[in-house]
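CHAIN AND CONFORMATION:
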Amino acid sequence: MTEIIVVANQKGGVGKTTTSINLAAALQKLGKNTLLIDLDSQGNATSATSPKNIEEQPTVYDVLMGLKDIKECLRI
């Protein structure tokens, strides 16, 4: 069964990114397939979970602008 979990709050600095990263990691450790989508303009979840050459890879921005397919942006 697929479940969607959203961590959202209008206020900044309340731990949304930290919670999201740790929740995704914990679910993955339990053997669950996880997809963490970083829609924050600062991209901290992406930078915390991605390799160093992140500037060279397509992002969710490219998907939203219709420049790339979502499958091209997945990092496994």
